[in-house]
Amino acid sequence: MAAPAAVAPLRVAPSAARRSTTAPAVRRCYDVLDLCRGCGITDFTDGKYADDRNDRQAYLAAQRRQAEYLLDQVDCRADSRVLDVGCGYGRILRAAAERGARATGITIAPPQLAAGRAAGLDVHLVNYRDLFFDVRFTSWQHAFTGVIANGSLEHFVQCEDAALGLADHVYAEFFDICRRLLRPGGRLATTAIHARRIGQVNPADLTAGPGRWPRGTLNYHAANLHRSFGGWFPEPGQLERCAAGRFELIAAEDGTHDYYLTSEFWMRQIKRSLALNPRSWPLAIRTFARRPVATWHMLRCLLWDESWNYQFRDPPPAQLWRHTWAVVS
What is the pTM of this model? Predict the structure, then answer.
C-alpha cells in the first residue's frame, strides 16, 4: 500500500460547541456548478478509468466504476446502511440502492437537494459538522455500516483555517464525526486531492485572489481555485495523522491520472455545450443572473485559465488519493 508519508505532530484546537457555517465560497461554488447539468455533467469527482480512452462513453463508465469501487470499499451489500457526505446529484446513492442497501446523502447545495429528492433519493440539506447539533439527526449515531466522502473533503478546510493552523483540527473533527456515525466494524472511504509536498503553497498567499500573482504560476492557479471553489488540500500524510486513534488506513490508491482524464473531459464538454448546444443556455443564463461575479470567475477559472486542469497536468502539482479507513475499536 503506497500511503503518503507522515508529517509534523497533530495540532488540534479546542472544539467549539456551536453549529458551523459553510464557507460562502463553497456555497457559491455549487450554486454556480449547477449550470453544468445543462452541459450533461452531474458528477464533480474523479472517475475510475479502465484505460486512456476519454470519450463520453468512457467518462460515464469511469464514473460508474468509481461509485462501485467506493461501495466495495465500505462493503456495501443488501443489509448495509451507507451515508454519502457531499452526495452531489446522487450517483453513489443510486448505485447503493441497486445493491439493495439503504443509502442516505447530505449536501450543502440546494440545487443538489432538489434534484436528489425529485429522483426519490434520501437527501438532506446539512453540513456534516452540524449533524449532532440537529435533533433531526441524533438517531444517526452509530447507524451506518459505511460512510463515503467522495471529493467533498477538499472543501472542509479553508485557506484562512490553514493559515491559522486549524487544518488538523478540522480533519480530526471529521474523523470523530465519522466514527460517531459508524457502527462497530464500519468503514470510511474518502477521495481527496492532496498537495504534492508539504509546504508547497502558503495558504496566507491565496486569500487576496489570483491577481497578485503572475498568470500561470502555481500560486496564481491555487488562488484562482480558492476563489471559485473554496477549500484547501491536505498535505501528504496529514489525513492519516489526523485519523490516528480513530481510524486505521487500510488501503490507499493514487487516482491522479484518473482525475486528469476526468478534468480534460469536463473542460471539453462544458466548452462544447456552452458554445454549440442551445439546451445548455437557459440554465447558464439563470445561473449568471443569480450569481454574475461568481459565475464569471468560475468560467474563467475552468475554461480560460484552466486552473482546475492545471493541477493534474504533467508534472501535476496535486495528487488524488483514494483512501479506505477502518474504525479503531
Answer: 0.93
Question: Is the CB of residue 124 less than 8 Å from the CB of residue 106?
Answer: yes
What pairing do the DSSP bridges indicate for beta strands 247-254 and 318-327?
antiparallel
Quick check: is 49 in a domain? Answer: yes
Q: What is the CATH number of the domain that holds 297?
A: 3.40.50.150
Residues in the chain, how many? 329
Q: What is the per-residue pLDDT for 329?
A: 84
Q: Does residue 8 lie in a domain region?
A: no
Q: Given this model, what pLDDT does residue 11 score?
A: 45
User: What does the DSSP 8-state code read for residue 4?
Assistant: P
- On whether residue 75 sits in a domain, the answer given is yes
Total domains, the chain: 1
Structural domain range at position 271: 24-327
Q: Is the pLDDT of residue 314 over 70?
A: yes
Measured distance CA(186)–CA(327) in Å, rounded = 6
* 1 within some domain: no
